[in-house]
Automatic annotation (TrEMBL):
Probably binds two magnesium or manganese ions per subunit. This is Endonuclease/exonuclease/phosphatase domain-containing protein. Belongs to the DNA repair enzymes AP/ExoA family. Mg(2+) binds at residues 9, 38. Its cofactor is Mg(2+); Mn(2+). InterPro entries: AP_endonuc_1, AP_endonuclease_F1_BS, Endo/exonu/phosph_ase_sf, Endo/exonuclease/phosphatase. It comes from Solanum verrucosum. GO terms for molecular function: DNA binding; DNA-(apurinic or apyrimidinic site) endonuclease activity; double-stranded DNA 3'-5' DNA exonuclease activity; metal ion binding; phosphoric diester hydrolase activity. Keywords: Hydrolase, Magnesium, Manganese, Metal-binding. SUPFAM superfamilies: DNase I-like (SSF56219). GO terms for cellular component: nucleus.
Length: 174
C-alpha cells in the first residue's frame, strides 16, 4: 500500500498564529500521515492543532530519549506500519545514542517501518552546502542506515530541506 507521509520539524507551536498557519498548510498537503516535531511544545498537541480527521489509528509503542515510535493501523484498509520520529543531538558522539535506540527499535518491529525526523547530520558531501569532506558523523549515519536496512528516500523538488536565516547555510536532512 502506498501512502503519503509528511514530517515537519516545526518551531514555535506554542504561538497561536503559528498553529493556525501550520494547520492551514497541513490541509493543503493531502497527506495520509503527518508527523509534527516540536521539542518545546507545552501541553497536548492534538488539543492545540486539532483533529484533522482520521483514517489511521495510532498508538505509541516505544518512547526513548531521542525517539518516539508509533504503530499506525489504517481504518480503511488491512494495513499497518510503524513510524519512528527522531530528534538527534548535534554532537556526533551523543548522536550515537540515537543509533543504539534505532537498533533496539528495529529488533522489536515487524513489517513496514519509516524513520523520519531531525537527525542533525547528512550522509553525503553533496547534501550540505559548502561541505568539502565527509565527517565521521556522516559515515556513522550511513552505516546505521545500511545496518538497519533502511532506504534513504531522496528529495524530488528541492536540493535542501533546511536553511538557517536568510538561507545562508543549507542542509539536506533526511
Amino acid at each position: 500500500m502506498k501512502f503519503k507521509l509528511v514530517t515537519w520539524n516545526v518551531r514555535g507551536l506554542n504561538d497561536r498564529d503559528k498553529r493556525r498557519l501550520v494547520k492551514s498548510v497541513m490541509k493543503g498537503w493531502n497527506a495520509d500521515i503527518i508527523c509534527l516535531q516540536e521539542t518545546k511544545l507545552e501541553g497536548n498537541m492534538e488539543e492545540k492543532v486539532g483533529n484533522l480527521g482520521r483514517a489511521w489509528k495510532g498508538d505509541i509503542v516505544e518512547t526513548d530519549m531521542y525517539t518516539l515510535t508509533c504503530k499506525f493501523e489504517s481504518q480503511l484498509y488491512n494495513y499497518s506500519c510503524h513510524i519512528t520520529g527522531v530528534y538527534a543531538p548535534n554532537c556526533y558522539i551523543e548522536r550515537r545514542s540515537v543509533w543504539v535506540e534505532l537498533g533496539a527499535i528495529r529488533g522489536i518491529i515487524e513489517g513496514p517501518w519509516a524513520v523520519c525526523g531531525d537527525f542533525n547530520v547528512v550522509r553525503f558531501i553533496s547534501e550540505k552546502r559548502n561541505c568539502e569532506r565527509r565527517t565521521r558523523g556522516m559515515k556513522e549515519f550511513s552505516d546505521v542506515i545500511e545496518d538497519l536496512k533502511l532506504v534513504d528516500l531522496q528529495l524530488e523538488d528541492n536540493n535542501y530541506t533546511w536553511f538557517k536565516g536568510g538561507q545562508s547555510r543549507g542542509s539536506l536532512l533526511n
